[in-house]
Amino acid sequence: MKNSKKVTDQVRRSDVEIHEIGIVESVRKFIVLASGIPSCVNGQIVDFENGSRGVVMGFKEDYVQILVISMGGEIRNGDKIYNRAEPLSLPVGEGFLGRIVSGICEPVDEMGPIQKDAQFPVFFEAPGIMDRSPVEKTLETGTVALDAGIPIGLGQRQLLIGDRLTGKTTVAIDAILNQKHTGVICIYCCIGKPYASLLRVVQILNEGGAMPYTIIVSGISPAPVAEQYLAPYAAAMLGEYFMQLGRDVLVVFDDLSKHAWVYRQISLLLERAPGREAYPGDIFYSHSQLVERAGYLKPELKGGSMTFLPIIEILQGDVTGYISTNLISMTDGQVYFNSGLFNKGIRPAVDFGLSVSRIGSKAQWPAMREVSKSLRIEYLHYQELLQMSQIRTSGLSKEAEARLKRGAALTAVLNQDRHAPQIVEGEIFILYALNKGLLDPLTVEQIKKFKAEFFKFVSSSAPELIQSLRKEKKLTQEMRVQIEQMLQNYFSKAQP
Questions:
Q1: Domains of the chain: residue spans and CATH
Q2: What is the pLDDT of residues 42-80, one digit of tens each?
Q3: DSSP three-state, residue 215
Q4: Sheet strands (E) in 104-184
Q5: What is the pTM for the complete model shown?
Q6: Average pLDDT, the chain
């Protein structure tokens, strides 16, 4: 780089060894062009003389492009800039549990400073294939439609995709609420959403008792663009700290479509050539670098895991957009939320025809696999028959009427109230009753009552059955006899 003011000799400033001193050449909102620091690389931290900090985002001819991540004052042309030759790293630790932090891990909940245990790089390299174990253990989401029809495993990357206001965030929050007794650390990353949306999530998590094991990373729309851009990487970094300690982590990114908007804004100011839908050409790399950090580590590396639930918003059911197709290609499956089903009152509005889990039944309990093996195909056949019955004017056969009645019972089983996750053992009991045909003659209200009461009935009558199922994770002949006895007892006493 050509600069008469360049100083390459090492100097010392505030007891920090500085390798190079450069000069600010221009300031464009939150983007700074600097010269005189030829040794810097992407992702490296730099300091401004007024106390501001930035991270190197790229290079242009004789200049370094820097994204300002914290403002210590106004940055002017001619200001000095210091290259410390260090990658961007942020604090991590147990003290972050129960706290709300910004995209640069600074507390924003007015609860005082956070004690850090270590400093981790934000742009951490994903574990290699030889460091990973196969994804075989289930993540209990508490949502019957997912646990039974689209199972998610620890270490998996499962995309939640759908139109605006179709229940994507609700399912993700329910998954966090359901980890209360599983030991899974949860991280909710809010990107580009209004402050009111974040407050609602915090309220739900507080009321559900989830905050003690949850970290919230706030990259809300009023936050600086740099914090919105860094928020998902900071969330992954916080999760990696716990994963490397051998713990299981669930990270929700809500949502990556807004993160793509932020990155597009940064790239346009960096004067990078826009590509499809005006997004920069490296947006695929940016997101794939993020989602690849999920995984299940080998026992030699303490066997921790990090599961990602990235959320993306589409318009009018179009899954062919640039960002949506990118994320579909780099995740292990997607849960598609259908606005038509949502408007019909089906909650969660999961479309089994367009949803898939590439991990599949490997991650399910054998007991859940047994009771749910025909659930998806049966539900799809019911939806087709329902549409045909609405078109036909003549009467239906008895067989078709029976299938419609069973389909209605299945729909009632899959329907679930918001923020009321169900324990896996309870889901298995309900599906077992459904498979035996015991719910077919019931009304929707009776099925709803059964779902609310039966697990409590078993807990009080035969708690050892629940403990055995949790331990074995499969249905033995003895368990089947006990479940059928419990069902018989319940319907003889509880049903009107």
A1: 11-87 (2.40.30.20), 91-364 (3.40.50.300), 371-493 (1.20.150.20)
A2: 999 999 998 899 999 999 888 999 999 988 888 999 999
A3: strand
A4: 118-121, 159-163
A5: 0.92
A6: 91
- For the chain, what percent of residues have pLDDT higher than 90? 78
Containing H/E element for 424?
A: helix 424-435
Structure tokens given for 430: 């309900």
The DSSP output letter for 299 is: G
Token readout for 56 is 């190197």
Contact 334, 160 (CB under 8 A): yes
Distance of CA 163 to the CA centre of its chain: 17
Instruction: Tell me what the mean pLDDT of segment 416-433 comes to.
Output: 95
Give the span between the Cα atoms of 298 and 300, in whole angstroms: 5
Cα 386 to Cα 224, 405, 406, 446, distances in angstroms: 49, 10, 11, 21
Question: What is the distance in angstroms between the CA of the first residue and the CA of the last residue of the chain?
Answer: 84
- Catalytic one of 28, 164, 358, 418: 358
What are residue 320's phi and psi, to 5 degrees?
-95, 5
Q: Which of 386, 400, 495, 383 is nearest to 442 (CA)?
A: 495
Amino acid at 305: S
Q: Which residue is listed with tokens 């709803």?
A: 448
Question: 10 falls in which pLDDT band (50, 70, 90)?
Answer: very low
What is the rounded distance in angstroms from the CA atom of residue 393 to the CA atom of residue 382? 18
Q: What H or E segment, with its residue span, contains residue 238?
A: helix 225-243
Which residues have C-beta within 8 Å of that of residue 462, sequence separation ≥ 6?
Answer: 482, 486
pLDDT digits (tens, 9 = 90+) for 306-360: 999 999 999 988 999 999 999 999 999 999 999 999 999 999 999 999 999 988 7
Q: How far is CA 214 from the centre of its chain?
A: 13
Helix (H) or strand (E) run with residue 430 in it: helix 424-435
Separation CA 400–CA 386 (nearest Å) = 10
Distance CA 156, CA 180 (A): 20
- Is the bond preceding 348 in cis, omega lying within 30 degrees of 0? yes
Could you confirm whether 358 is annotated as catalytic? yes
Phi, psi of 230 (to 5 degrees): -80, -15
